[in-house]
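Predict the 3D structure for this chain.
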Amino acid sequence: MKIGALSQQANVPVETIRYYEKIGLMPAPERGENGYRSYAKAHLERLLFIRRCRNLDMAQEEIRELLRLAEKPTADCSEVDALLASHLSHVRARLKELASLEQTLVSLQRACASPGAISDCGILDGLNTELEKLSDAEPHNHVPGTHGAGNGD
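Done. Predicted structure below.
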């Protein structure tokens, strides 16, 4: 099948498929004499696996590791379990960070008791105060799919 058909069947944009090929998550397809990529059922299965992992907010390196482990079907699955346990721990930590973020936002919203001039805005004043507190705190990263502070996995 051509890349457009693969994209449609997997519900993944063509650009994403090309990106996955570029970074090695997807194997390179064969190319016809016309230069078009030709994908097999195995490509679709791999793409669907990657998509499911991304839906679970797994990082590229986690997916890469799962794919590597999947190539050893008779090996002990403890490494897969350990990877999932690590990911679950990360998700739980992010949930705590998000709960804290929610409380901060609720507090900021309460700072605006009534409509008034921007110069008297309790939210903006609170944001200035919060920014001072955050400059001393450990940096947080709330970008989906990234693990750890400030790294772009």
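DSSP finds six helices and two strands in the chain.
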